[in-house]
Write a structure and sequence with these properties.
It is built from 21 helices and 8 strands. Strand 4, helix 6 and strand 5 form a beta-alpha-beta unit. It has a 6-stranded mixed sheet, sandwiched between helices. Helix content is about 55%, strand content about 5%. It is elongated, with a radius of gyration of 37 Å. The chain is α/β, with parallel strands linked by helices and about 525 residues long.
Length: about 525
C-alpha cells in the first residue's frame, strides 16, 4: 500500500496476473480490471521513467493501430504531440476508439485514415500525403509499435525515406501468456535511420554526382549528411568530402578566392587529423591536394588584379598564366565529358586567346593597348636583330602585311592592329616567327588552321551563329587547341602532363580508404 492506502502498481499487477490465469470469462474481467485500475498508473509510471528520453518537442505523431491500445496510449501521453495521424483497419477501428476515449482526444487534434493491412503501398501513401499536407515538418515521429507486420514495416520504411524519427514501445520483460509487457517495464525506443547513422548509401549517390561534375547537387546532400551522421569519425570524413566538393564547385565556377580559402581549410583539417587517423578517407590525396593548392594560390591573386585593372600583370606572370590556362583547359575537358560541347568550345576558344595573349606579352605587346614601339624584338627572329627600332617596326609591319595578304588571298590594309583580335594576334606572332606558329620555317599552314578553327567556333550559337556545336566539329577544334596548348607549354617551359594531372578534380571514391565509411569497428 502507498501512503494513501492505495495499492501499488506491483500489487495490482499481481492481482491482474492471478485473474488472467483463470478461465476465459474471468480473463474478460481481468481485462476490465486492467483498464480501470492499472492503466492510469502504467501511463504515469511510463512517463516518469522515460521523460528524460525526450530531447525535443514533437509536433506530429503517426501511429499504426493494432489490436493492443496500451503502447499507443503510452507514447501519445509521453510525446504529447500537437497533431496525430492514426492508420487503422476495419478490424482495429474499435481499438482506435478506445484510445481516443481514454485520452479524451479532441477531433481537432487527430485524424484517422483506414489502410489495407496487407498492402504496404496504402500505408506509405497515407504517410506521404500527411507529410505533404503538413508541409514537410521537421519534427515528425512515427510509432510503428502497433498494427500488422506489413503495416509496421511499411510505416518504418516510409519514415526512413522521408527522414523522420522512428519510435516504438518495447520491453525486456514480455509476458507471453498474458500478451503484454509486465506493467512498469515498458520503455521508449528510438530507431536510428541506418542511412543517417552511416551515410554510406547516400555517400555513394554523392560519388555518382561528383563523377558527373554535379558539384551543386553533391554539396546539398553532403551538407545534410555531415550535420546528421552521429559517428564523429564518419562525420569528419564526410566533412572532408564536403569541403573538397565545395572547393571544386567554386573552382569550376572560376571563383578562385573562395576555392583557395576552402582548400586551405581542408588541408589544415587533414593535417590535424592525420596524427590520429592516417587511414581515413582522402588521406592518400594530400600530395595531389597540395599541388592543387599551389595552383589556387596563383589563381586567387587574379580577382584583385582585375579589380585594379592590372590585367597586364596577369599576362606577364608566368606562374599565374600557367595556372589560369591549365584551369581553362581542365574546365573545358569537364564540359566535354558532360557532352556540353558548346560550352567546352567556348572555354577552349578562350584558352586559345590566352595562349595568344601570353605569347604576345612575351614580346611586350599588350593586346588591349599595344605600344608597338615597346616591342622587344630581341626575342624575335634573327632578321630583326642589329636594327634600329624604327627599322624593326617597319620590317614587322611589312611582314604582317605580307602574311595577311597571303592568308586572305588579296591586298590588305597596311597597319598594325589596335586592339588585337585573336587571328590578328597569331598573325603578329607569325611575323615575329614565334615557335607557336612557325613550322619548318613556314607560317602559312598553321595560320590557315587557326583561321579555319576560328570560323568553326564563330558559326556556333555561342558566338555569331545559330546552330549547336556538332560533336565531330568539337573534337576537331579540341584537338587543334590541345596541340596549340602543348606548344605553348613547351615555349613557356611548363610540364603539360604534370600540370594537367594537377588540375584533374579528384573523386573521393578513388581513395583507397573510402570503403571504411559506414563500417563497424
Amino acid at each position: 500500500m502507498d501512503k494513501k492506502g492505495e495499492k501499488s502498481l506491483q500489487e495490482l499487477t499481481e492481482i491482474w496476473m492471478s485473474m488472467e490465469r483463470k478461465t476465459f470469462p474471468q480473463r474478460e474481467k481481468a481485462e476490465r480490471f486492467y483498464e480501470k485500475n492499472m492503466m492510469r498508473l502504467i501511463v504515469e509510471n511510463y512517463r516518469n521513467r522515460n521523460e528524460d528520453m525526450i530531447f525535443e518537442k514533437v509536433d506530429y505523431l503517426i501511429l499504426s493501430v493494432g489490436t493492443s491500445y496500451e503502447p499507443l496510449i503510452l507514447n501519445i501521453s509521453l510525446l504529447n504531440p500537437e497533431r496525430i495521424l492514426f492508420l487503422y483497419t476495419a478490424e482495429t477501428e474499435y481499438i482506435l476508439e478506445k484510445i481516443v476515449a481514454f485520452l479524451r482526444l479532441k477531433s481537432t487534434v487527430y485524424q484517422k485514415k483506414m489502410v489495407d493491412a496487407t498492402d504496404p503501398l496504402s500505408v506509405y501513401y497515407e504517410i506521404k500525403q500527411a507529410y505533404l499536407s503538413w508541409e514537410r515538418p521537421s519534427k515528425v515521429y512515427i510509432d510503428f509499435t502497433g498494427g500488422t507486420k506489413t503495416m509496421s514495416a511499411s510505416a518504418a520504411l516510409a519514415g526512413s525515406l522521408i527522414d523522420v524519427q522512428l519510435v516504438y514501445v518495447g520491453t525486456e520483460n514480455y509476458l507471453p501468456d498474458f500478451r503484454k509487457p509486465k506493467p512498469g517495464s515498458e520503455l521508449l525506443y528510438y530507431i536510428d535511420n541506418p542511412v543517417e547513422v552511416f551515410g554510406d548509401l547516400e555517400l555513394e549517390k554523392v560519388f555518382a554526382l561528383i563523377e558527373r561534375y554535379n558539384y551543386a547537387g553533391a554539396v546539398e546532400k553532403l551538407y545534410h549528411l555531415k550535420e546528421n551522421i552521429p559517428d564523429p569519425l564518419n562525420r569528419q570524413q564526410i566533412n572532408f568530402v564536403y569541403l573538397l566538393v565545395r572547393i571544386y564547385e567554386k573552382w569550376d565556377a572560376l571563383e578562385f578566392r573562395s576555392a583557395y580559402k576552402m582548400m586551405e581549410q581542408l588541408l589544415r583539417e587533414m593535417k590535424r587529423d592525420y596524427r590520429m587517423h592516417k587511414n581515413i578517407l582522402m588521406m592518400d590525396f594530400q600530395t595531389d591536394l597540395n599541388n592543387q593548392f599551389k595552383l589556387l594560390a596563383q589563381l586567387q591573386k587574379i580577382p584583385d588584379l582585375i579589380a585594379a585593372k592590372e590585367q597586364i600583370h596577369i599576362l606577364g606572370n608566368k606562374s599565374m598564366m600557367s595556372a589560369l590556362t591549365l584551369t581553362m583547359y581542365a574546365n573545358a575537358i569537364r564540359r566535354e565529358q558532360q557532352e556540353k560541347y558548346g560550352m567546352a568550345t567556348l572555354l577552349l576558344y578562350r584558352l586559345l586567346e590566352m595562349i595568344e595573349q601570353g605569347r604576345l606579352m612575351f614580346y611586350g605587346i599588350y593586346i588591349t593597348k599595344p605600344e608597338y614601339g615597346c616591342t622587344d624584338f630581341s626575342k624575335a627572329a634573327k632578321c630583326y636583330q642589329n636594327m634600329e627600332k624604327n627599322e624593326q617596326i617597319n620590317l614587322f609591319k611589312n611582314k604582317v602585311h605580307e602574311i595577311r595578304t597571303n592568308l586572305f588571298k588579296g591586298d590588305q590594309e597596311y597597319y598594325l592592329p589596335r586592339p588585337i583580335a585573336l587571328l590578328d594576334g597569331f598573325i603578329l606572332l607569325a611575323a615575329l616567327e614565334d615557335p607557336m606558329v612557325v613550322e619548318d620555317g613556314r607560317t602559312g599552314n598553321q595560320l590557315q588552321k587557326i583561321r579555319t578553327m576560328v570560323y568553326l567556333r564563330n558559326n556556333s550559337i555561342f558566338a555569331h551563329g545559330f546552330g549547336p556545336v556538332k560533336e565531330n566539329d568539337y573534337y576537331r577544334f579540341r584537338n587543334f587547341v590541345q596541340e596549340m596548348f602543348e606548344k605553348y607549354c613547351i615555349c613557356e617551359k611548363i610540364s603539360f602532363d604534370f600540370c594537367v594531372k594537377a588540375n584533374i578534380f579528384l573523386n573521393p571514391i578513388n581513395s583507397k580508404y573510402y570503403q571504411m565509411i559506414g563500417e563497424r569497428k
